[in-house]
Each structure stands twice: as C-alpha cells, then as structure tokens.
Amino acid sequence: MAARLITKSGRVTAYLPNLNAAVNHFRTFSTHYLKDQHITLCSDESSNGNIKYDISPELGPFGPLDKRFPLPGHVGLKNNSVKTTMVTQPVLYREPVNIDEFLTKNNLEKRQQEVFQQAQEVIEDQFLGEPSPGDNLECIAQQCPDRLKRDVQDLFPERDLKKTNLTVIVISQKTTNDMSGWSEEVEEERENLLAEFNEAATDICNVLMEAGYWADFIDPSCGKPFLGPHTNATMFETDERYRTFGFEIDDLGCCKVLRHHLWGTHSYVGCLFTDAPLDHPFISAMKAKN
C-alpha cells in the first residue's frame, strides 16, 4: 500500500498502515543511505606495477576520523613511497553566455517552479487530506518554532535547543476503542500501543543517532524522555503543548482527552524530537513499503 504523503512548508505528513511501516522506512532508508556514502579511491602503484584501489566507505562524512586524512575534507599528506597517477581532462570549449539572458531565464524558471509547487500543495490538500481505509497511522514531522523550543527545553536540560535545529515527529495511531472512556478492553489496547510505540520509537531514534543526529522521544506512560537523563519535567498526551501540533484537548470534567483531527478520541499519540532537519531524506522521503 502506497503512502499518502503531504509536504507543506515546515511540515511533512505521511499516512501509513502501521508502526512497522514507519520503522521499516527508517531502517531501509538508513541502509541505502550508508551504501550511498562518499567513497574514497586511493590508487597504489608501489606493488610490482599493479594498481590497487582502497575502497573505504568509512571515509564518508559520518565515518570515524581516518588518521591518514587529518586535514579538512578528508585530505592527507603526500606519501613519497606511494606513486600516484593524475589523470587530466581536456577543457571543453563553451559558447560565451550572456549574463542578462542567463539571469532572466533562471528567474523565470524559478518562478515557474514556485507556482507549480504552490499548485501541487493545493491539490494535495484537497485530495490527499485524509488517509486511505487501510492507513491506521499518521506521522507528522514539523520544525519547532522558537517558542516551542523554549517550552520543551526543560525536557532536555542537557541540550541547548535554542542554538540548534529541532524537529518534532508526532505519531498518531488509530485505535479500536474510544480512549476517552475506561474499560478492560481500553486498558489492554493502551498497554499494547504503549509497548509498540516505545519499541518503534527506540528503533527510529537509534537509526537517527547512527546517522550522526541526536534523537529522543517522550514515553507516553510517564511523560518523560525515554533515552535522555532524568528530569522532573513532563509532557503527557493531554499537555497543552500538543495544541501546537494540531490537536484539540477536551476537558471532560473528571479528565482531559486528546482529540485527533481525523480520528477524534480513537487515537493514541506519541512524539519524537531530533535535530535532524526536516528536509533530510530520512524524514522527507517517508513512505510505506508494499
């Protein structure tokens, strides 16, 4: 089942069949991402005239520091014992370019792209605004404004959020039971959803951290960060800060209930925080697997 992906300024929304689809995306994309890392080729002609190539994916931007290449940009000092061959390419002749015509053409193309993107967003809002019948999970990633950074700073006291990018990924699962009431069935479903969310969120955070980013998530059972150090600050599912993410909070007198814009009180919500940018392919290319 293909995902229904909506990309808007400052937000990415994806509808998926379940949590496994979200986790599989991050795992699979992580594998492809590591395969596509920068690879450095070093030729060595010192062994009987045979050329050897040293292919090391660990020399990429996220790999460990290689002492052979201590300078910025993975540049190393020349080793006189190794003969290297430099291949030069001939300079191709190009027709002179009129700067005025070049700039005018580029501006027109840029404007056309902007208009097309705006039209595409309108179409997506009209026709992709709701999940298909088989989609039981909504995943919304959005950049945290400065005001929200200040509101969640106490959750992560070891980090200075005002000096870094902060992306929040809100995961909403459609539930069978109405979460505004209580019964044995509701309690059992909540416990199952809690275990599934914590396991999936841990996997997603691990993938982001392996890529060099910081990531953590809020444990819905206690409202505290799951991976970070202990803090007295909390963010439960009925916290007012969830209004910033598009949720409504119903005050029933005896308790408060989170209301999803599509599934109402038939929803279970959790959120992750990371400094990975919103336009990183881990997030922007989110899609379900067939």
TrEMBL record:
Classification via Pfam families: MMADHC
Gene Ontology terms: biological process: cobalamin metabolic process
Any GO CC annotation of this UniProt entry: mitochondrion
InterPro entries for this protein: MMADHC (IPR019362)
Superkingdom in the source lineage: Eukaryota
Annotated PANTHER family: COBALAMIN TRAFFICKING PROTEIN CBLD (PTHR13192:SF3), MY011 PROTEIN (PTHR13192)
Name of this chain's protein: Uncharacterized protein
Organism whose genome encodes this protein: Mytilus galloprovincialis (Mediterranean mussel)
